[in-house]
Amino acid sequence: MRILVVEDEPKMAGLLRRGLVEEGYAVDVAANGTDGLWAAAENPYDAVLLDLMLPDVPGIDVCRQLRERGLRVPVLMLTARDAVPDRVAGLDAGADDYLTKPFAFSELFARLRALARRGPSERPPVLRVGNLALDPATRTVLRGSTRVELTAREFALLELLMQRPDEVLTRSRILEHVWDFAYDGDSNVVDVYIRYLREKIDRPFGRSSIETVRGSGYRLRPEPSDDAAHQA
Ligand code: CA
Q1: CA dihedral 214, 215, 216, 221 (to 10 degrees)
Q2: How close is the Cα of 133 to the center of ligand 1, in Å?
Q3: Which of 26, 32, 42, 136 has a 20 to 30 Å separation from 231 between CA atoms?
Q4: Ligand 1 centre distance from Cα of residue 71 (Å)
């Protein structure tokens, strides 16, 4: 088992290296996010131990960039005990598990063994409607071959629409899926986000794939012109 440790604090990095080597792991250490990304792309690691507090590229971004580059190596994040938002962001960015500092080596080894058993994480399938493609793993959206940048909320809304093409989704159903329980505003927010989405995935491409179904809600349709546009 070969492990990459991405950790900037020399004392912590040294401690991890010694502990892992004693347990029989091969260990490389990267002292910042940039080196960590480079090493992870160049070498076949069985797992990456990723500290979230790094001096250059934040650990969350290191993880996201690994996934965007198609690297599916298991990632175990190291976070502060009370950093719940960090852990959530890390898991959303594609990390597989986390461990809070300070931790016991026995727990670290157990989690590494569990990750190794699981192997590289399964890649969720890319959603396609017409010439629109959404990749949940890398969180990218393409209209034809053009990449479209969406906010997290817009992405979640489009993902929902693409999971159910041709189906009319009511505002309340969309609210339920895309907004959390804490949201107690009115459903006009759905109309606002549909408008944002149209401005990004439809209007610049001369399309109108998101239909308003009067009195009901919205529906995403592959347009007949998609095939022709694709062949052109
Ligand atoms: Ca650190």
Answers
A1: 0
A2: 36
A3: 136
A4: 23
The rounded percent of the chain whose pLDDT value lies above 90 is 52
Q: What is the CA radius of gyration of the chain?
A: 21
Fold for 127-231, please state it: Arc Repressor Mutant, subunit A (1.10.10)
Residues of the chain with pLDDT under 50: 226-232
Tell how far the Cα of 101 is from the centroid of ligand 1, in angstroms.
11
H helices present in 77-210, as ranges: 84-92, 105-118, 152-163, 171-178, 188-197
Q: Would you call 119 helix, strand, or coil by DSSP? A: coil
Cα(8) to ligand 1 centroid in Å equals 5
pLDDT tens per residue, range 38-52: 999 888 888 999 999
CA distances from 13 to 4, 16, 95 (A): 11, 5, 20
Q: How many CB atoms within 10 Å of residue 49? A: 26
- What pLDDT shows up at residue 231? 43
pTM of the predicted model as reported, rounded to 2 decimal places: 0.55
Q: Where in the chain is the domain with CATH 3.40.50.2300?
A: 2-118
Q: Which helix (H) or strand (E) holds 21?
A: helix 10-22
Instruction: Tell me how crowded residue 7 is: count the other CB atoms within 10 A of its CB.
Output: 24
CATH 1.10.10.10 range(s) for the chain read 127-231
Q: Is the CATH number 3.40.710.10 carried by domain 2-118?
A: no
3-class SS at 49?
Answer: strand
